[in-house]
From TrEMBL:
The keyword Nucleotidyltransferase applies. It comes from Citrus sinensis. It comes from the Eukaryota. Keywords: Nucleotidyltransferase, Transferase. This is Phosphatidate cytidylyltransferase 1.
Amino acid sequence: MQSENNTSAPTTPRLRHRRRSNEAIPDATKANGSHLLVHDRNKYKSFLVRAYSTVWMIAGFVLIVYMGHLYITAMVVVIQIFMARELFNLLRKAHEERDLPGFRMLNWHFFFTAMLFVYGRILSQRLVNTKKMYKYQFSQYAWTHMILIVVFAQSSFTVASIFEGIFWFLLPASLIVINDIAAYIFGFFFGRTPLIKLSPKKTWEGFIGASVATITSAFVLANIMGRFQWLTCPRKDLATGWLHCDPGPLFKPESFPLPGWLPWKEITILPVQWHALCLGLFASIIAPFGGFFASGFKRAFKIKDFGDSIPGHGGITDRMDCQMVMAVFAYIYHQSFIVPQSFRVEMILEQILTALTYEEQKALYMKLGEILQERLFGQS
């Protein structure tokens, strides 16, 4: 009987199944492959949702830029708060944080402490130490500091660029938006060849088409934006009024003759447009790698988006991944290649009045008088 029972009910080894991720990883062959996205009816709903959100974002962005420097700075602060919120939520484990009361508040304490420190203030407050779950706690501390570095590094460069002139914030930010929209449109209608495995929806057709559109837009937009003093003048205080200044040689039109067989005799170009080409080249080739890095980051955490703040786009961080890379480059480029060429009389006088003593100012005045007198007699 014992043998019969053993043969009639054989034991089978217990199989262990790995929990499947909730991430919806798109099939590269379906996303790109031999079928165009334009032929997929289901994609049009996503296309319309993204287009609707894009229109609202651009409209709000234009309104804030129109309102001036302080409002743009406030927008940057709000964006970085939402980015930090999405990244904090990405690491949250509710069942473990039940034993750490106030731990989420501690994360935000670090966040706002860093914010006040970056913007010139200091916040001193005792931290509440918890003696439980050291491994989880210290890993969260490490992630908190990394998030603060990522968020505040780009935001500090962005704020610095705003006060150098809205032009140096608005143009790079616009180029990233144009590159993103153009890559989506070109990839949607013409995309066939996958670009990188981390982002299966990215295609070479979208990448190349967006690069051409971005570089062309950079040259054109620089000419348009560079003609408004409100966009080109730096802000030296916290006032909200309109600015008037000498725009400097970069924003003064220069005429170039054209060949006789063209209908136009000459073309007017602002010198800053040549610098805009460099910004456009970076925005179209290097800045997208910020998005590739973010895609790899999301893939490692098995998530589709950082958040759901923007319908059809994901979270704020999903829209700001390339902007972070571009903000750092734009500020460094401005400080390296633009600032030495843009000394203004107002800036020099301000430095003289604030940095020199009365005796030093008097000596400088006498020296300048001697130099001007020598040049006057030399010309005569």
